[in-house]
Amino acid sequence: MDTATGAPTGTPPGTPTETPAASPAQEERQKEPLRFPAGFVWGAATAAFQIEGAAELRGPSIWDTFCRTPGKVHGGDTGDVAVDHHRLWRDDVALMDRLGLGAYRFSVSWPRVLAGGIGFYDALVDELLAHGIQPCLTLYHWDLPQELEDAGGWPERETAHAFAAYAETVAGALGDRVQLWTTLNEPWCSAFLGYASGVHAPGRTSPADSLRAAHHLNLAHGLAAAALPSSARVGIALNPSAVRPLTGSAEDLDAQRRIDALANRIFTGPLLHGAYPEDLKADTARLTDWSFVRPGDEALIHQPLGFLGVNYYTPAVVSAAPDGGGPRSDGHGATAYSPWPGAQDVAFHQPPGELTDMNWSIDPTGLYDLLMRFAREVPGLPLMVTENGAAYAPDLHDPQRIRYLEEHLTAVHRAVTDGAPVEAYYLWSLLDNFEWSYGYSKRFGIVHVDYATQARTPRASAHWYARLARTGTL
Ligand code: IFM
Question: Among residues 38, 85, 348, 463, which one has the fewest Cβ atoms lying within 10 Å of its Cβ?
């Protein structure tokens, strides 16, 4: 048994038995350690549908339906069992404790709450607190109850009101013990992958509906934030895009502006400033007149924020593509729809640099730029990195993941040094899990999960992160 992490003996081949060899960057660090501020929070993140399983103890969500739609999810994988966290949660909390985590970001399953299953989260929160781990609760991480999608889903205003009622229920049960709340996780994905490109549940491909969905997600945030107890620190976890122009040409700079509006300012406009950007409305005027935004909505969305959560993995590089337009082939004989309403004439380019197993390029400067951008945009607003991490091969020896984490944490440290009020870092993910349309084929965990036995084995990166959480020094 590894005394730091509790990795069982007799674990799979390749189990790291000692700290992995230092990378050149680490060796450099040993000369000059990077110390994070006292009180900086080291956490890890997961989401209900990706880990819980126990689908029989809740109603169906849009992801259950999507998983059962042929061709939508790799290998026909489902969330029925996932990594069995609904059964193994005590062991998982004990594992977090052994890793020395200060906080755990998890999401509550709306369909489970509707089925009367809030007791699971009640017990989980108590267990976390008993282990000295701060719960950071996300109300919505993509698993919309199917019945609400059947009634129209996020393009319908009523869904935002249903969300506020659900938030009140969860707050009534857990609000006495949970201080940190994120309303939504990555509403960009819910709106644009769910309703425009259709690569996420519910798999619809209507650009106009995706804009309605984005607004009703924003509204849901505002209504829920207003309904949570005054003791709650309420934030939202966005996946802002670090958008770069391919060249400095006026056309490419305009492509950057348009994607920045659709990726970032469509959320930060009303959330941080109480108004949708005029250029966004002009860019999308061909698709909608935005009359779904009713008087008072933007002010309602503009609730006081306890923190802004930043989920970051990779940057985007864009250029003007005047010959673009219309659906394209996805390369596998199907039609690929754009997740960018009204911006078919913008091309996306593979940024230079090494790739992770998701084929996402590695560029920590994107994280630094975003943190500094928000620090300047709303001075004093606390920031948290609510997700960051990388998928790699299943191996337990994972030096590439350590390097990815190290480089991104160096960027976070630089942002803190330069004045960004970053309080916390939540690594994605604690455990290997269901990676949406990729099923179980991509592994983000610092803890390996054997999907046949559900055995958990900390990877080398988990040992590395445990040391960082203990010392606060990179
Ligand atoms: O697994 C996802 C998570 O659910 C949301 N953010 C990105 C992660 C990696 O793709």
Answer: 38
Distance CA 387, CA 429 (A): 8
18 catalytically annotated: no
Distance separating alpha carbons of residues 406 and 404, to the nearest angstrom: 5
Asked, for residue 5, whether it belongs to a domain, the answer is no
Annotated catalytic residue: which of 52, 149, 156, 387?
387
Contact 61, 109 (CB under 8 A): yes
Answer yes or no: is 162 within a domain.
yes
Q: Is 185 helix (H, G, I), strand (E, B) or coil?
A: strand
Q: Is the pLDDT of residue 258 over 70?
A: yes
> Are the CB atoms for 267 and 341 separated by under 8 Å?
no
Q: Per-residue DSSP letters for 97-127?
A: HHHT-SEEEEE--HHHHHTT-HHHHHHHHHH
Model confidence over 410-464: pLDDT tens digits? 999 999 999 999 999 999 999 999 999 999 999 999 999 999 999 999 999 999 9
Range 70-78 average pLDDT: 97
Q: Domain for residue 296, yes or no?
A: yes
* DSSP-assigned beta bridge partners for residue 355: 361
Residue 186: phi and psi, rounded to 5, are: 50, 65
Residue range of the domain that includes 65: 24-471
Please give the distance, rounded to the nearest whole angstrom, from the Cα atom of residue 249 to the centre of ligand 1. Answer: 33
Amino acid letter, residue 188: W
pLDDT in tens, 93-116: 999 999 999 999 999 999 999 999
Looking up residue 148, the CATH number of its domain turns out to be 3.20.20.80
CA atoms of 274 and 191, how far apart (whole Å): 20
Averaged pLDDT for residues 274-285: 98
State in Å: Cα 69 to ligand 1 middle.
Answer: 21
pTM over 0.90: yes
- N residues, the chain: 474
In a domain? residue 18 = no
Segment holding 41, helix H or strand E: strand 41-45
Q: How many domains does the chain have?
A: 1
C-alpha 162 to ligand 1 mean position (Å)? 24
